[in-house]
Amino acid sequence: MTDEDFMRLALEEARLAASEGEVPVGAVVVHEGRVIGRGRNGPVHRHDPTSHAEIVALREAAAAIGNYRLDGCELYVTLEPCAMCCGAMLHARLKRVVFGAADPKTGAAGSVIDIFGNPQLNHQTQVRDSVLADECGELLSRFFQSRRQEARMNGYRLRDDALRTPDSRFESLPGYPWAPRYLNDLPALAGLRMHYLDEGPADAPLTWLCLHGNPSWSYLYRRMIPVFLAAGDRVVAPDIIGFGKSDKPKKESAHTFTWHRQVLLEFVERLDLRDIVLVVQDWGGLLGLTLPMEAPDRYRGLLVMNTALGTGDVPLTPGFLAWREMCAKNPDFDVARLFARGNPHMTPAECAAYDAPFPDRGHRAATRVFPPMVPEFPDSDGAAVSRRARDFLSNEWQGKTLMAVGAKDPVLGPPAMEALRSVIRGCPAPMLVAEGGHFVQEHGEEIARAAVGYFRA
Q: pLDDT (tens digit, 9 = 90+) per residue, 381-394?
């Protein structure tokens, strides 16, 4: 393997660090062509100022060979090491250090100081710089750009006819470390603030566009996002208006199928998303499966989970009708309890995270209106465009499709998904998740790993 190959392994660790909310720096230690140590930044969640990627990798390598002296070993790191890490590398007697992006603020391998260049030291370590520097630098730039955007997010003025969930409701959510991003300049939004996640390199081979349903939000994909990022891909996961960290119109009448679809169309255009694998569930599919026909060249694949097309000429499933009736009778149902009932493996904190966007009844107009908003009749809002989408998916869709089904879903389970599969051109037999329910993403690691292999084949 070449220096570039080993640096790509370090980049995988860096992306994992970013997915955990850490500055994205990764490292690997190599001995005789074999990786014996891996590390990624972790000072924040480990509460350890020495937990830099290089130190973590050195510790693992030393344990692997049973010696703190790493004679003949090489270390690859995505960012020029600091003075602390350079000192540790010299103490370990590394043969060579290879880094990607230079660090003009704290770099100790030539940018600020050059510890390795001191001839008085009793060990001399070779250094090579700028290996995949652009890729390493882009990962860091995107990370800090998202942090700056987070700092500016309170600059978005709240419309008088909308509510905004306090930031405090989203503090310390388990498994959701990613920085928020916001926009409000889409024509359809008319000033409403929309939240989304955008992680991974902008020029990634694939962009996974993850669309949630009711009453969930982008938190739904927290088990799948790290798998996509570790593969080197980009993940974009918006919160539909009325859900998650996005603004919430006070009036139920603000929500229509056509309007929400238009917001998503403009969102894809605004971010200029390409090489998309569209990941959908519930309302994410009702809306999302109507998008590819408007710009087929942007889409490479569909990952379809427990959803439907609302064409208005096919009866709604008995399971959905029962769900809609329950929502009508209990419009302020307990969201956390809903997730706990269908996902007994989830912790109370994870269940509570789904309720975080809804501190009171005023924030819940969307959860009340979405069940009756599903197109039921041929002239229902959204039905005609859904029929057009069905024709496109049946006759013109050129991408690959993978379907994953939560077998225990009483609303859109295997029979409903088999009906949907029959109208998607080239869709193979679905991946059945035996313990999965309607929110099958709560078993998402297995699905995500299968999807990465499938869409890269």
A: 999 999 999 999 99
Q: State what percent of residues in the chain have pLDDT above 90.
A: 90
Question: To 10 degrees, the CA torsion angle through 199, 202, 204, 208?
Answer: 50
Assigned token pair, 38: 């891996």
Task: In whole angstroms, give the CA distance from residue 317 to residue 330.
Answer: 20
**Which residue is listed with tokens 């037999």?**
429
Nearest to 103 by CA among 139, 78, 75: 78
399: three-class secondary structure by DSSP: coil
d(CA 41, CA 35) in angstroms, rounded, equals 18
pLDDT band at 415; cut points 50, 70, 90:
very high
SS3 97: strand
DSSP state of 438: S
Convert the pLDDT of each residue in 250-307 to its tens digit: 999 999 999 999 999 999 999 999 999 999 999 999 999 999 999 999 999 999 999 9
DSSP notation for 181-207: EEE--STTTTT--EEEEEES-TT-S-E
For 106-139, give one letter per residue: b (16+ CB within 10 A) or e: ebbbbebeebbeeeeeeeebebebebbbebbbeb
Q: Which residues are catalytic?
A: 282, 409, 438
Q: Which is it for strands 34-40 and 26-31: parallel, antiparallel or unpaired?
A: antiparallel
The pair of structure tokens assigned to 350 is 């994870």
pLDDT at 81 over 80: yes
At 45 the pLDDT is 67
Q: List the 96-101 sheet strands across, edge first.
A: 34-40, 26-31, 73-79, 96-101, 126-128
Give Cα 225 distance to the centre of its chain: 4
Q: Which helix (H) or strand (E) holds 419?
A: helix 414-421
Cα dihedral sign for 297, 298, 301, 307? negative
Tallying the residues shown for the chain, one arrives at 457
Residue with tokens 């690959």: 400
DSSP letters along 231-285, please?
A: TT-EEEEEPPTTSTTS-EESSGGG--HHHHHHHHHHHHHHHT--SEEEEEEEHHH
Which amino acid is residue 429, in one-letter code?
A
CA distance to 109, 217, 224, 420, 449, per residue, from 441 (Å): 44, 12, 7, 19, 12
